[in-house]
C-alpha cells in the first residue's frame, strides 16, 4: 500500500498491523510512472496493491497518469470513486455549493483558471483545496480576475477532522485571517459562505473540540470514545484499572457447579465485568445459556443488562430508578419459602465491592454466596505529558464510570484540575469523587455509558447558551465554568 500525504492519520491507523508488516507501506512518492511501477511490481508478485488517495482518485492529475500507466499493462485494476477534498470539506464547513459548482483539488495554483473562478463567484460559490502557503497567490489571482474584495471567504483547516476549524473573512483579508494554518486547506468563496452560521453542523456539535479524559479499562473504553466522537469530542483513553481473574478459582468453580445443579434462585450481576467473568468460566466447562434454566437474573445498570442479553438471556429485574445496590434492593422481593423453595442468591462481583448488596439481601431473608469473580488492579501511570495535562487543566472534561476509576486515576495520575468538567455515572461514583475533592458537574438519571455521554453533551450546550446570552464585554471576563467559555466564537 502507498498513500497520499492528505490521507488522515486516523484512517492509516485503522489498517491492520500485519498488513503494514507484510507488505510495503509507504507514502506515494515520485512521478506517476514511478508509483505505478511500485504497484505493478507488488501485483505481479501476487499481492493486492492499493494506492490510498485523499478525495476522488480521478480528481488528481498525477493519479490519472498513474492509472493510465497501469492500464497499458495486463494487470487488472479498479478505481473506487470518492468525494473530492474541496467539495467534501465545504459541506463539513457548512458552505453549500449550488448552481454553477466548481470544486477543485489542486497541487499547483498556477493551474487554476481564475477567470472561471471569478465567474463562479458572481453566480454562486466555489471551493478549492490548496496548500496554506499558496493562499496569498490565490488571493492575488482572484483580485486580478476582478473578484470584488468584499466577497465572503471561508478557510478551513484539518477538514473533516477532529480539530477542523473555519475562519470567515473576505477576499482582501482571508490571508491574514488564516495565519497559522498549515498543510492543505479548503478555500470557499462566494455569497453562500455567509450561510455558515446557520449551516455549520460539524463544528457546532455540543462537545466539538473538547478534550475528554476517559479513565476506564482498556477493553471498555472503545464504546464510550465512539459516542464522544459522535458529539465532536476528542477522547483520550487512560487505562486506570485492569481486570484479572481471582487469585484462587475455587469459589467460581463452586458457583458454576451450583448454577448447573440448581442451587440458586437468583444471580445478581452488578457490572459488565461480572457477566464476562461468569461466561468465561462457563466457556471453560463447555456450558452455555441453557444451563441458566430456572435461574432468575437481576442486573444493575443497562450496560450490565445488555451484556446479559448478548448471551441470549433476558434479565428478570433491572431497577426502574437508581441504578445502584440500594436501587436494586428497593425492588428485590423478600424471600418467601413457599414461592421460593430455593432461597439462595449468587452474587459474583469484584474483590473491592462493598457489602451493601449482600447485607441487604440477607436482611430480606436470602442466603447469599458472595463470590469474587474478578479482581480490579490499578494500572500503570500514564505518560508524563498525560499526567501534566490532567493536573494543569489540559482536559476539558473527565468521565468517571465507577468509584474505582476515580480512586485509581487520582492514584496514578493526580487530581484533575478545578476547571475540568467532571461527569459521573451514578450516585456512588459521585460520592467517591466528592471524597477526593472533585466538583461533580453532571450526572445522568440512568447509570449507563450512553446516558453519561449525553449528560456531558447537554451540560456543554447549557454552558454555550449561558455564554451566548451574555454581552460581549461580560463574556470576555465571564466566570462561566467549562471549556465552551474558551471556545465560543
TrEMBL record:
Source superkingdom: Bacteria
Biological process according to GO: methylation; uroporphyrinogen III biosynthetic process
Tetrapyrrole methylase domain boundaries: 3-172
Keywords from the UniProt entry: Methyltransferase, S-adenosyl-L-methionine, Transferase
Residue ranges constituting the Tetrapyrrole biosynthesis uroporphyrinogen III synthase domain according to the UniProt record: 223-454
Cited PANTHER family: BLR5956 PROTEIN
Protein name: Bifunctional uroporphyrinogen-III C-methyltransferase/uroporphyrinogen-III synthase
Taxonomic source organism: Actinoplanes siamensis
Gene: hemD
